[in-house]
Amino acid sequence: MGGALVAMSAMLISPLALADFSRLAQLQQKGFVISAEARLIDAPKATLGQINPQALRSPASVTKAYLAAAALSRFGPQHRFTTRLASLAELDDNGVLSGDLIFDGGGDPGLTSEDLWRLVQRLQQAGVREVRGALVVNQWRFGPVQCLTTDRCEARTRVDNSYSAPLSSAGVNFGNWCVNVAPASRSGQAARITHCDGPSSLVRVDNRVITKPDNSGTELSAERVTDANGDLMRISGQISTNARARDIYRGASDSAAQTAQTLHAMLTRAGIAITDAPRVSAERLPQWTQTLAVVEGKPLQELLLRTMNYSNNYMADVLALTLVETPRAELHQAGQALEGFARGLPGHGSATFESGSGLTTGNRTSAHGVNVMLESMFHETALFPSFVAAFQSPVNGVMRFIRRGPQTFQNNVMIKTGTLNQPFAVRAAAGYFRTASGRWGVFSVLVNGNARTPYLSWSDVLAPLSQDLDAMILTH
C-alpha cells in the first residue's frame, strides 16, 4: 500500500518543474549566497539540482563530516585512544612511589570521570598506596591550544556555555566543570551545590540559588569566571523544593588544570596519599617511562556518533588535533590535515579548513566538494556503515529543529547540519538520500549571509530544502 502511494505521488509531480533547487534558490533574492548540489551516485549517475556547485562557502559544522571521514580513514572505526598513569620512579614493596605520578593525556575527545575512576582503580590494583611527589597532568601532544574564535578567547576569563572549553590532549568531561544543584530541605534556604563527581565542589562556587516552595519552577543561570584565585562557578536563580537535582556544565579556563584537580580529588578519596600539589606539564615523556595503569576510550565509531549528532565542538577539534603527527599541535595544523584529506579525493577541488569543528568562519569548501567526499565514503565498504550512522535521520533527529518537512524527506534522508550566526549567518546541510526506487544520492547545501542580510532561521532553509529533496526523491 505504501509503495503504491509513493508511485501515485511521483506521477502527480512534474520532474522538470519541481525536482531541482528552485525553492531554495529564492533565498538568493534576499541577498544570501548559495552553493548547492544534489546528485545520484549509483549508475547511471545524474545531477538532480545545483546552484553554483563549485563556489566556495563556509560549511560551519558540516566540516565535522570531513573530520569524521578523515578520522575513520586514518584510524578505523574500532580505534580507541589510550590514557595512562605512569612514572619515572620505581614502586617499592610497600606501595610507595618515590616520584611524580604522571597522567599521560592520549587525546581522547570522549574521556569522562568514569574513565578516571577506572584509572584510579587500576592504579590501586597495581599496588600504589602513596605518591611521594606530585600528580602531573601531561599534555605534550597538544595544549593549551591557541584560541582562534572569539568565544574560546573570551572563555579564558569568563564563559556561560560548555562548548567554548579550551582544547587539550589531557582534557576530561569535554573540558568542563560540572556542578550539581539540588533544592534545600526548606523553602527560603540556599540550594545545595556539589561537584558532579563527589560530595563537595572542586571548583569555587558563588551560590545565588534560592529554594522555593513546591511547584514554583526551576530557573537557573550559570557562568564560570576566572580571577587571581582561579575558576569560580556563579550559579543564580531558583529551584523548587520538589524539583529534581540538575547538573550544570561550564567550560573551565584550563582543561588540563581541571583534569588535575578532578583526578587529584579522586586519588585522595581512594586513599592514595600524594605529597605535593598537582601541576600541569607539556614536556614529552621519555620512552622509559613506566606505565602503571591504562584505560582505553570508546571506539572511534561511538565517539563520532556523539561528535556528529550533538555537533560537539570540543570533541571535533580535539579529534582533529589527533590527526596531526607532530607534538604541540595547533588548530591550523589540524586544518591542514583535513585539507590534505580533501586534496586526496579526485575531483574535490579547493578547500580551506582552520578547524575540525567549523566554528572558525575561515573554513571554505563547495557543495560539489562535499558531495565528492560523501560519495567517496559511500564506496568505502568497511567504513561507510560507521560514517553514515553518525548522520541524523530527520524523523528521529537528536536536534529537534530538523524534525520537519514532508514525510518522504523525514524518512529517506540522513543529514548533518551546520550553523553560525557571527560574523555572518551560515545554514548548511549535507548528507545522503534514498529515492523512491531505492537509489542512493548525496546532497550538500551551503547558505551564507553577510553583514547586511536579514536573520536567517533554520525554517527559512529547511522548508524549501526539504520540499526540493522530497521532489527529487519521489521522481527517481
Kindly describe this structure.
The protein has about 475 residues and is an alpha/beta fold. The chain contains 13 helices and 20 strands. β19 and β20 form a beta hairpin. α3 packs antiparallel against α7 and α4 crosses α6. The two termini are about 20 Å apart.
Structural class by helix and strand composition:
alpha/beta
SS field, number of helical segments:
13
Q: Record the strand order, biggest sheet.
A: 2-1-20-19-18
Largest sheet: 5 strands, antiparallel
What ranges have pLDDT less than 50 throughout 5 or more consecutive residues? 1-17
Count of distinct strands: 20
- Helical content class: 25-40%
Approximate shape: globular
End-to-end Cα distance:
19 Å
**Structural Rg:** 25 Å
User: What portion of the residues fall into strands of 2 or more residues?
Assistant: 15-25%
- Whole-number average pLDDT? 94
Summed up:
With 476 residues, the chain is α/β, with parallel strands linked by helices. The protein has helices spanning 2-12, 15-18, 63-75, 113-125, 150-154, 255-269, 300-309, 313-321, 331-343, 367-378, 384-389, 407-412, 458-474, and strands at residues 33-40, 46-51, 82-87, 96-97, 101-104, 130-131, 135-138, 158-159, 176-182, 192-195, 204-212, 219-227, 230-240, 246-251, 273-274, 279-281, 290-296, 413-420, 426-434, 440-448.
